[in-house]
User: What shape does this take?
Amino acid sequence: MRVRQLTGELAAQCCFNLVDRTKTVTAASELARNTLRFGGGGSVSLEILEDGVRQGLRLTFNDKGPGIPDIEHALSDGFTTGGGLGLGLGGAKRLMHEFSLRSVVGQGTTVVITRWK
Amino acid sequence: MERIPILRMGPNLLVSIEVDMYDQLAQTLLDDLGDRIVREAARGVLIDISALDVVDSYIGGMFNRIAQLARILDAETVIVGIRPAVAITLVELGISLRGIKTALDVEQGMKILREAEVGATGGGLVVHQED
Assistant: This one.
């Protein structure tokens, strides 16, 4: 998946260590799968952040899919509509430092995740 | 159709995951494994993921499904080659590979499968008494 490759490269550039890089790429993988499978495809943008002393990587996943009707439920572990372990959203949230999700039924979903070094 | 090759090693099947698993590929692998386990009366399935530097919840779910399928068909599953960063991430993701044995590499994994087989067929301890 190109998203993972790109994320990995940027994460390395941003001087994340191996474990942080793995977590970031894994979170990206979860969200990319969601975007593809449920969102009907979409876009992702990656951004290297610099906030004073600290550096971070922010990924924004956008899709114009059906949206998520029950966000609370979707974030809970064990919830799955896709035959996985249902840990995608909750898992991605746990792996990253910042996680935000905006979804409108019938319009689409945007997920933004950030990890700081 | 792209499919993951399944190799036969004695009574066990060996699968090496080296590419990203998308839905169709994962389903095909599951179907193929079920088929081969039964056809060849395989006793164990060894999954080598030493080439994977990322395992997400979907892939984790696939392993659980493989292990479940194998268990129903009376075969043991061992996953080998889990990288440390992957293991840490799996823990934080909250993925439990319960009921799946793991080992460092293919050799260790095969050892586990051999020992499991001996246990299953009741190979016990033979004690020689020297007088």
In short: Chain A has four helices and four strands. The CA atoms of residues 39 and 73 of chain A lie 17 Å apart.
